[in-house]
Design a protein that fits this description.
two-stranded antiparallel sheet, 2 strands, mainly alpha, single chain
């Protein structure tokens, strides 16, 4: 999670405006617009201000969008030469590691919940989801970084892609009418069919919502816990004196390091869970009898 700048914390530490340091710290979890006069600082260094926001095609550009682009560029670099290494059986150590991760996702995640024909076609999408989410999660652990997946808008966009694959993929594979007919369990009394259709339709729409909330809550919650322990140092130092702040520092720093270690594991786990659930949801729509 991006640490607060000293400039941002100065009012809280001096007892002026923004006296509560938690407000300053928690504010760094929220996305902020990139400023025209400080593009690099407001995009990647956590600088906040009231300057003119950068606009592209009339739309405000936010710092999390810069980190999404950075994540895509890092993925291009990470997978450069991996396909050739898989085909030839050679390549460097890092390329073998990335190929191993891709092979594990293919065999143990995608092919486990989807037949190989459709799984092979959708494999690039699921690989992208996993690594894209993981890199975005990991960037939030870098000093002055930001976590794009701590924004519900980012997660909703990814979940919408999964939802479209569920609906469009199901209708293409089963046929438009068969897909909607298979939402309802067969053999139901006629009077129960309308009610069950509504229930199943709600269940279908809840799936992308669950993907969005799960990733958003886990990434945001972890950052808030980490910033809470950091905030204890500034809170005690501001309201109870420098001695109290120094006294609580070992506890705050120790717990912050502990949470950072957990956050590193959560960054990988949440990417896996999002991808796994996406595979399961899409597979259920492609093959309702399974």
């Amino acid at each position: 999670m991006a640490p607060p700048t000293l400039l941002a914390l100065r009012p809280a530490l001096s007892g002026g405006e923004g006296r509560n340091p938690f407000e300053v710290l928690f504010g760094h979890v929220l996305p902020h617009p990139i400023q025209r006069d400080d593009i690099l600082g407001s995009a990647f260094l956590g600088h906040h201000g009231d300057g003119e926001p950068l606009r592209l095609f009339g739309l405000t550009v936010w710092n999390i969008q810069a980190y999404q682009i950075l994540a895509v560029l890092l993925l291009f670099l990470a997978f450069r030469g991996v396909a050739g290494a898989v085909r030839s059986g050679g390549g460097g150590g890092f390329q073998r590691v990335m190929a191993g991760w891709a092979g594990w996702l293919r065999e143990e995640v995608v092919f486990q919940y989807m037949d190989r024909h459709h799984g092979q076609r959708l494999l690039p999408l699921f690989l992208f989801l996993f690594f894209f989410i993981f890199v975005q999660n990991a960037l939030g652990l870098v000093p002055f970084g930001a976590t794009a997946t701590a924004s519900a808008y980012t997660n909703a966009g990814l979940a919408t892609v999964t939802f479209l694959c569920m609906i469009l993929g199901g209708m293409l594979v089963q046929g438009p009418l068969t897909f909607w007919r298979n939402l309802i369990p067969h053999g139901l009394p006629a009077w129960l069919v309308p009610l069950m259709f509504v229930v199943e339709l709600i269940g279908l729409c809840v799936k992308p919502f669950a993907l969005t909330v799960r990733l958003f809550a886990n990434m945001t919650g972890g950052h808030l816990v980490l910033l809470s322990f950091m905030g204890l140092i500034f809170y005690f130092g501001t309201n109870m004196g420098t001695g109290a702040g120094l006294g609580i520092t070992p506890v705050g720093v120790g717990m912050s390091v502990f949470i950072m270690i957990i956050e590193g594991f959560v960054a990988l786990l949440q990417a896996y869970i999002f991808t796994l659930l996406s595979v399961i949801f899409v597979g259920m729509c492609l093959h309702p009898d399974h």
